[in-house]
Design brief:
- By secondary structure, the chain is mainly α.
- It has a single domain, classed as dinb family like domain (Four Helix Bundle (Hemerythrin (Met), subunit A)), CATH 1.20.120.450.
- Helix content is 67%, strand content 6%.
- It is built from seven helices and two strands; from the N terminus they run αααααββαα.
- A two-stranded antiparallel sheet has the order 1-2.
- A hairpin with a 2-residue loop joins strand 1 (109-113) and strand 2 (116-119).
- Helix 3 (42-61) packs parallel to helix 4 and helix 3 packs antiparallel against helix 6.
- The longest helix has 21 residues, at 3-23.
- The protein is elongated, with a radius of gyration of 16 Å.
- This is Damage-inducible protein DinB.
- Residues 13-138 form the DinB-like domain.
- InterPro entries: DinB-like, DinB/YfiT-like.
- It comes from Sulfoacidibacillus thermotolerans.
């Protein structure tokens, strides 16, 4: 693994660890509570992250899947335990994939996204940026829930 990918793997693990800390100890009710009916809850955010990472994992491994990554935002029912297990499992799968990809493979085309064509190396950076973006929503949801519940 080259230095850039090694750095990205460290960053990926750090982002996931910070999300783990944010949701640690939350009750099922706290996972499911929405600050307002038109807002997201922690469960939908984590499930969305998981689905996007699964989709990107498919691009990285050459086995793309057609996954509706927006599905968690279009429902009103979530299985918190299933979401937790899925989030943990996809993180392990992404780490394994990143450890196994060669420099040559990382320079191969991965996907055409809304931002344009990306190679696998760029896709990894985008995956981390996406997860980081949604990671930033979790403390906002938690704070709004606490404020509006008081």
């Amino acid at each position: 693994m080259d230095k850039e990918m090694s750095d990205l793997l460290v960053l990926y693990k750090a982002v996931h660890a910070s999300v783990d800390q944010m949701v640690e100890g939350l009750s099922e009710q706290e996972w499911l509570q929405k600050p307002l009916p038109n807002m997201n809850n922690v469960a939908s955010i984590i499930e969305h992250i998981t689905l996007v990472e699964q989709r990107f994992l498919g691009f990285l491994t050459g086995k793309p899947e057609n996954i509706d990554t927006g599905a968690p935002f279009k429902t009103d029912s979530w299985n918190v335990e299933k979401i937790k297990m899925g989030y943990s499992a996809v993180a392990q799968q992404v780490e394994r994939a990143l450890n196994s990809l060669t420099s040559e493979e990382l320079d191969q085309h991965a996907a055409k996204l809304g931002i344009g064509d990306v190679n696998k190396r760029q896709l990894v950076a985008y995956l981390i940026a996406h997860t980081t973006h949604h990671r930033g929503q979790i403390p906002i949801v938690k704070k709004l829930n606490a404020t509006l519940s008081a």
